[in-house]
Amino acid sequence: MSTSTFHHHFRSLTAMSPLQYQKWLRLSEARRSMLTDRLDATTVAFQVGYESPSQFSREYSRLFGLPPLKDIINLRQGVTSEMSYVENA
Fold it and tell me: What CA–CA distance (Å, rounded) separates 1 from 75?
């Protein structure tokens, strides 16, 4: 399969280019690590393959709409709110 054919099929399945998909995977894994493993953004940036924490933060903000720390705080507060709702139900 040629490179252009692969890209065409890949985009038709994922609605993203292979590079965009790779970036999405890396940032999603970073988000999961910060949320569940309680790692800081700089550590996670290097773990998922970024050489620059500032580049990681820019791309993270672009994808998730907030900088890493603010996003994780919001997610944790959302989880806490949902858990207290379940406990009181």
Answer: 41
Q: Determine whether 30 is exposed, middle or buried from the number of CB atoms within 10 Å of its CB (0-12, 13-18, 19+).
A: buried
pLDDT in tens, the chain (89 residues): 898 988 888 888 888 899 999 999 999 999 999 999 999 999 999 999 999 999 999 999 999 999 999 999 999 988 655 555 555 55
* Burial (CB count within 10 angstroms: exposed 0-12, middle 13-18, buried 19+), residue 68: buried
pTM (2 d.p.): 0.78
For residue 12, what are the contacts with CB-CB under 8 A and spacing of at least 6? Answer: none
